[in-house]
Amino acid sequence: MSDPTDLPEGTGAVSPRRRRWRGVLIALLIVAALVATGGIIVGRYMHSLDSAYQKRTTVSLDKGSSDGDRKAGGSGQNILLLGSDKRSAQDAGSEGVSGQRSDAMMLVHIPADGGEAYIVSFPRDLYIDIPGHGKDRINSALAYGGLPLAVTTVENYTKTPIDHVALIDFDGIEGLVDSLGGVDVNVPESFERGGTTFTAGTQHLNGKEALTFSRERKHLSGGDFARNQNQQQLLKAVAMKLISGDTLSSPGKMRDTVTALSPYLTTDDGLTSQAIVKLGLSNRNLRGSDLHFLAAPHGDPATTSGGASVVASDEKGMDALRTALKEDNMEEYAKQIAD
């Protein structure tokens, strides 16, 4: 890789000293909730669940050149999931950006034949081109242009079309996890934060603890990369609880889950209740073992000429991922990178 100091200064780059503790939301919980909600339960209790779901915010996504080309015969579905820090106006102004940044970004690929899901996580500091704003961290796209620009940025980078997008801010974590009665998380590394001790191994977390667990990075040996691993562990735990038999068989629990999630959720206007039902029915047999968590290829940590800490891209590795997404061959891709 070239000398990190050769990287140009990013527009709106944020110094680590100026970052506050911000949440990193579990993005898969959105898909897990939607898939679980989209099964038989929705058919029986559509009215109450639909009323809760309508509390979300919607945005329109324009289809254009960034959508890329689909392989003939279908290439599955791609859903972009974002977790937002939703900073205050004062914080946003001091950092030279507006709105919110995506502190968690995952691309979920559901193959055309269904039955599995591949969840690819992107480092929040990945240094790539943001259309109209030059090179910057990938998480700045949301601040510069909301969900439409975030979608376009990822479509350009992955060279694959995105069918739907969903965003949730971290204020929704506590209510969601608590509505599930807590979750059992595999803690990779012991640490202490906010008066809570997280011990390596399986640990039951309530909503407040889950939020703290997903936000921590400075007390972890791997920093942001270790935090990404923690987020994935929390995602797995939430997904397992959502698709467990007792949750799916309880209309009350599903209603409470959707009610807790919806006020913090923003989706594209195409992700309607009907679309969710269709998605859920086509993936109603999805189980925890069918969820495959992957990390997007990336280079080493680097520093821009302006002193901003970023993560370099890995174009060779990304080309392999781009091909797998385009050809709907993520199963083979996952096997290759695991070898």
Automatic annotation (TrEMBL):
Top-rank taxon: Bacteria
Membrane recorded as keyword: yes
Signal peptide extent: none
Segments passing through the bilayer: 24-46
Domain Cell envelope-related transcriptional attenuator: 101-242
Keywords noted in UniProt: Membrane, Transmembrane, Transmembrane helix
Gene3D superfamilies reported in the protein's UniProt record: LCP protein (3.40.630.190)
InterPro entries with a match to the protein in the record: LytR/CpsA/Psr_CW_biosynth (IPR050922), LytR_CpsA_psr (IPR004474)
Similarity comment: Belongs to the LytR/CpsA/Psr (LCP) family.
Protein's name according to its UniProt entry: LCP family protein
Species whose genome carries this gene: Brachybacterium kimchii
